[in-house]
Amino acid sequence: MTSERQPTPGFAREIELLWGLKEAPRRGPRPKLSREAIVDTAIALADAEGLEGVSMQRVAKELGYTTMSLYRHVDSKEDLLALMSDAAVKGMPVPEPRTDGDWRAGVEEWCRSAITIYRAHPWAVHIPLSGPPGGPYGLRWMEAGLRELVASGLRADEAIQTLMLLACTLRDALRIENDMRRTAAERGMSLEESTRMWAQSVRRVIDPREFPTISRVFEEGVFEEEPTETADPGPAEDIDFPVQRILDGIEAYVRDRKAGGDAP
Amino acid sequence: MTSERQPTPGFAREIELLWGLKEAPRRGPRPKLSREAIVDTAIALADAEGLEGVSMQRVAKELGYTTMSLYRHVDSKEDLLALMSDAAVKGMPVPEPRTDGDWRAGVEEWCRSAITIYRAHPWAVHIPLSGPPGGPYGLRWMEAGLRELVASGLRADEAIQTLMLLACTLRDALRIENDMRRTAAERGMSLEESTRMWAQSVRRVIDPREFPTISRVFEEGVFEEEPTETADPGPAEDIDFPVQRILDGIEAYVRDRKAGGDAP
DNA sequence: CTAGAACCGTGTACCACGCACACAGATATA
DNA sequence: TATATCTGTGTGCGTGGTACACGGTTCTAG
Asked: Are A41 and A62 in contact (CB under 8 A)?
């Protein structure tokens, strides 16, 4: 068997990528560049200028290397983004296992942690999830959340689905908030101003007979609220409601199942 | 007041875009191309080849025009995508208002409708939502869902948040399913095969001491299931669980509020 | 009726990006 | 020491979005 570099028969090469599972080269010059350095500067760039600031040329320039040198350590830009995604949750403060049995508080704490790192790396929510995490840091993150959810009484597969639901919800909410804030800033207004303008435009354009419910909602003055919040970024205004409803749902679900029998 | 074409002072130019609010030109040759034709062929292209098949050059070629001619009718590709997003939900079969008071059934029907059009236009879930819909079709869609949610007893703003939560959840689930199915197909396997391979790779790589919960989950043989479903695409396998939990949560929430007082 | 304003679609070009490929120098194995 | 193997470089291709100036067309004002 001559060691031919097979491109990983398909067996989840993603895992191989994220865990850095390559046999180290035996010959040739010692590499000055490293995959880690590339990912780090890419992340620094994204933190500073957003995802659209991350191009292969830009990352290379930042490092003082040629564009093509990156491809020695990373197969494609897609791979780089995957590595960035995993590394983004590296600094996540993983909650300790709880001693009281309060799984709900545990999940809430997990959500707050997630929000914290996503606020530290806003670009991360713009890289769409494509399944459960596979990298070392992503799995650590998953482990922490899964622990609490399993404690709630969910079955394993249900816990995973719920975790994905929570993760997607957090990410969507943060992404939308980011987007809206950014486009508002482009027009030189605050988020609240922009929202109010948007609401007025919609209101002018819709026919109350065709859109009775929406009209009524506008009548009630949603979107007109003053920023009653104390802090600017707040802990998690619009994120709290959906998360709480999901947790309500889980709570009701496990309670009902415990009460009733477990028929097929 | 000379009619200077102001670029819409910022007042939600998105609405103006989506509703086609431009005063018709009074001079010049009759346009042969139309915004509608552009959007239609772009959608046809996306249906056939996915979003990455949609480039300005490609759309123009399909129509038999020059690339730049499109920019007479559409300000940018971003705008084209926004128009496509709105038009995608055009064919949505909007459920009739219910006569029984079963709001939960109403919301479920709304979700099924959404899934139907998203399956008809898989690319649509890859254009990220950036807030509540603003176009005529999107608002029609919103109206239908909002009607049922308001009937449940939610406040107006809560209903909107819930609707966004549901929409995001449906879209995320469908997008992830699409993505996973596509990457599996690229490696020449079915979705189930690919998932199993992935699970095996992860399992090989993680330390049970560091990832006790995940290890246990793998031990239980999640990801190993045979496709016990009857139909191939099924109505909504992985989508049903999260949606039901959310609805459980709403139900519990409105019930609890009705029971307790409404203290601040 | 005619001049010019307003508008349509075209042609040309620019720039950014991802990446293929061949190469020169470095290095460890045989 | 010869040689296979590896590292970073340079060059260049193809594709994508879009700015800009232009010739031709149509409506309106004088």
From this structure: yes
